[in-house]
Prior knowledge:
By secondary structure, the chain is mostly helical. The chain is built from seven helices and no strands.
Amino acid sequence: MNRTEYMNALEKRLRILPGDSYREAMAYFQEYFDEAGPEREQQAIEDLGSPENAAEQIITNMAIDKTSVPHKGIRKNMNALWIGILAICAVPVALPFALLLLALVLLCLLCILLMLAAFVLLALCVAVLGPVIFAAGFTVLLSAPAAAMTCFGMGLFFTGFGLIAVYGIVLACKWTIIGMARLFGRILKKKGERNEQA
Length: 198
């Protein structure tokens, strides 16, 4: 196997990574071969091991790095979470167990995200209901001023409560994703420590 074949095999295995992480991983291997030079290409391939092992190792290292540092923004945290899931699946265990674990993790993640999405929708409905109630107060302002004042008060309350609830739930979503990414990072770190001891 030469450098081109090795890089092609690596590229197929690393394509599952998010864009930035994929480019970072490929740049690492390009730089590794560039530093080795053409005369030590075979030695570099032997040092790296098979493309499968090299891809598994880089995914695991990326997952540990990305989950150990909290990121700003949900997109970066989702990338870290995805890399963590990929790294757990890349660990050499029995394939059925890995698939079962992946399915279980993805279902739990999906349930949590759907529950949070339902709370966001509920809070948005409450926030939208507020201005509707407030506007309804104007329809009875002249005929029932007390009822109009009640509508104004309830409208303002629901609007404020709904907006605060949306903000709180968005923060809960962010911290849930960060927490899951850190959990995967801890799992991978422990597995890496066990592999080093073995």
